[in-house]
Write a structure and sequence with these properties.
17% helix, eight-stranded mixed beta sheet
């Protein structure tokens, strides 16, 4: 990389500096919009003791789920974890620490972290295990709990297109958590389907400005379907 050009040509360069016991924030929702190649490279590196923040932990054998196979994840901060049998086993066996977080709260934790906001109050989770041990304040007669924001040592993101300066566009529902995650990493890496030259992306269509992005890599994607449901044919 030189100057404003943030393109790297290998996954080794994309994840340079990643080491044990770091925090990774990852985009995606289910298997939609996940940075498949970057996740595979994390597995190849063999780093361990990771704290991973993502809406979910993939499925058995794909997505973030592959990082469970060699017990690379120490702690998972997620909203939904019901598609992964290995995740369940490691949780119940006490091998994996899990912090379940309401989905909207998780999104706001990441957004706040990217905006430099250390914490915020929300009514979500008050009076439930989510709110245990957290500061409570009352506004207009309603109790709210204090939630701390989230940032990571690395943020891994999947985008549709990016230019060499790191300006990104997400396609359809692959926006999900990716825009918030992109702002919340000390080092943000974006894996894309297509890299274009600066000026080719319409400015009004850019979702993540390049100021948030440190590295861009062109990947190839399986885009696996998480759960296929077909309609029964009438006789």
């Amino acid at each position: 990389m030189s100057g404003f050009d943030k393109v790297v040509t290998s996954y080794e360069a994309a994840l340079e500096g990643l080491s044990n016991d770091m925090t990774i924030v990852a985009g995606g929702f289910g298997l939609c919009g996940i940075p498949e190649g970057l996740i595979a490279q994390i597995k190849s590196l063999g780093v361990s003791g990771l704290t991973v923040v993502s809406n979910n932990c993939g499925v058995d054998g794909f997505g973030l789920g592959i990082l469970l196979e060699d017990r690379q994840i120490k702690k998972m901060v997620s909203s939904y974890v019901g598609e992964n049998a290995l995740f369940e086993k490691q949780l119940l066996d006490g091998e994996l620490e899990v912090e379940l977080t309401p989905q909207g709260t998780l999104a706001e934790k990441l957004r706040a972290g990217g905006a430099g906001i250390p914490a915020f109050y929300t009514a979500t989770g008050y009076g439930t295990p989510v709110g245990e041990g957290k500061e409570v304040k009352t506004f207009d007669g309603r109790p709210y709990i204090l939630e701390e924001s989230i940032t990571g040592d690395f943020a891994i993101v999947k985008a549709w297109k990016a230019d060499r300066y790191g300006n990104c566009i997400y396609r359809h529902t692959a926006q999900n958590f990716n825009p918030m995650v992109a702002t919340a990493g000390k080092i943000t890496i974006v894996e894309v389907e297509e890299i274009v030259e600066p000026g080719e992306l319409p400015p009004e269509q850019i979702h993540t400005p390049g100021i948030y992005v440190d590295r861009v890599i062109k990947g190839t994607f399986e885009k696996r379907i998480e759960r296929k449901v077909t309609a029964k044919q009438e006789a």
